[in-house]
Amino acid sequence: MNFFSDLRKLLRFYRFKINRLFSIITFSQDSYLLILGGITGVLCGIGAVIFHYSIELMKELFFDLPAGFFGRESLIGGDNWINMGILILIPAIGGLLVGLVAKHFEKSPPIEGIPSVIDSVASKGGIIKGRVAVIKTILNALSIGTGGAGGKEGPIVQIGASIGSAFGQYLSSSPDRLKILVGCGAAAGLSAAFNTPLGGALFATEIIMRTFNARTFSPIIIASVFGTVLSRSFIGAEPALRVPDYALTSNYEFFLYTALGILAGFASIYFIKSFFFIEGKFVRMKKMPVYLKPAIGGLFVGLIGLFLPGVYGFSYALIDRSLFNQAPFIMLVLLFFFKPIATGFTIGSGGNGGTFAPSLFTGAMLGGAFGQIVNYLFPEISAPAGAYALVGMAAVVAGVVHAPLTALIMVFEMTNNYTIILPLMLTIIISMVVSKSISKGSLYTIKFEKEGKVLDIFGRKIRILKNIKVSELIEKDIDVVYDYYNFNQIIDVFKKSKLNSILVKDNTGKLIGQIFFQDIRDVILEEETRDITSFIIARDFMTNIVASVSAQENCEEALSIMENYDLDGLPVLIAQSGELIGIISKDTILSRYQKEILIQPNEASLGVD
Asked: Which domains does the chain have, with CATH numbers?
């Protein structure tokens, strides 16, 4: 007990020293963030290496050692009943261990890695408990290493994010800076695990942060680079997948890739529906102890893995075989249908793992099978089947997570193949359009909806915005001109206004239009109108009111209108009479939202307290 007390005192002392050092040395905020991003990248790179070897260790303990005991090279493929029984039981034992460890150390319901990180950024100011990294490493290594069908990308994102958050909290970082460090950790962890520095950075920006700007993106890039460099030093610099050089055989192939894109969109829906169907079945098992559910899920995975060992999450061997067109057609079809089911049994039962890599796997199986069909039907105009497996991977990922740029760059980096980029881009977009037209959200956003935590496209919690009424934030000090105001009077009002538009009234006080700053700017810059500004009045170039909101509406509705019309403020009207009573600005809404996020009670832990 004294040891831990002394350790905490030592950590506090060094935190004081580090903060003191940064206060003495003069850094700009951007430089400071880059330094923190680099340190976060190194820490997460170490975490990714530990996670990688933890999975390898579990695989050796549960698969390789028993095989050696029976004098076999591998348990997989054995045909005696003892061998088969062990194969069925290994994932179940792993699930039971996961359930027991989670019962004693994970104090809140398990949440799949990536959604939990999105929630921390959207709802909790980037705060994630530091012990998440340790416990999630143990739980996911157990789950994946014993044959669970989950992927390692979700866990490593959560592990990296928790390291970044813990580091930021150790330095007493502000909420904005803490969120950036969470993004740095997520990017560095994913980049280090898959050897995809640019893909990891885009993933963190597109899915976790949901915003693109230099202040956010630069430290994330730095963290991604440092994490990848450290990982390559221990795990190796080879691409995660090896693939032959493929090229577009004929322009007619674009028709085939279009068809593949449509199929990938439906495959994405199949993946999402299968996952949530199985998860729902386990959720409804109210009487079964929670810690036993992963064991039941593992048992089903063991039964599937007995006949289709490609569903195990610790190996990419079947993806490699599909890329080299070395997998039988029937094997590809069966794995396409059963991998999402096995993933649902692993994660939906309360086990651990991610869904990104399984969707990648599902896409490779679909593309490989599709490629073999078109090779048979159109041998003169189609590339080898492996090219379609490569494109199918990215297409299904894009349809499942609704992140086309991330899917494109990550698959490109994982395979190091640029020659097929055009069909890759086409197929990804088609798949996502098909998926979006059928599904009401991505796998991650649907999960939030089921938990009552619906987010908008910027990662903001809609429920909180809906609870804030427009009437609470009305600003009475309105920037208004009358329709007879001359140009100079309008300019004077704009100089004082904080918005990009001002309202126009007639001489009776009735609201009749608005003038945008761009209209004023165009009048000044264009020679034809510059000389007649003394004759122009407000009525000459005002437009009708583009949009307004009533005082009874909520701020989610107001914010949605502003973003649809690219406005930074809205006139607030009385619903019945249309009388102008004030304005509401985007900045005011977002400021109030941030305060609500900080003071709201914690709804659900991010996995570990």
From this structure: 29-241 (1.10.3080.10), 253-288+308-450 (1.10.3080.10), 465-598 (3.10.580.10)
